[in-house]
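Q: Convert this sequence to structure tokens.
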Amino acid sequence: MNNIEKFDMVVGVRTIRRDPMHRLILGWLHNWAICLLYNIKFRDITCGFKLIKKSVLDAIELKSKSGFINAELMIKTIKIGYKIKEVPVKHFPRIRGKQSGARLKTFIDKIYEMFKLWREESV
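A:
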């Protein structure tokens, strides 16, 4: 039996991240802050690999407009009671395009939405 039959969402954990040091540090801080604030435990919230059952997506209203949407999806999935499985995935260095996750505006948007959801959820 494969993971998606046993779990409602399967998410990737990059085994060896091929990112510059500043992105590794920001990613670790972002992941740590989310896990602390929402009392959840995941190793790589921002990994792009996510396999999600349609029933999960139908049950969740996503509001984020920034990179925080990965975390919002996982936070709300756990809160509703669905089960998530982390699986190792390979990560390759970017060969085209520009990374935007470490830009100041992008980072501020994520932090704003992180606290906005936290405030809404704690009311």
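Residues 21-38 form the longest helix (18 residues).
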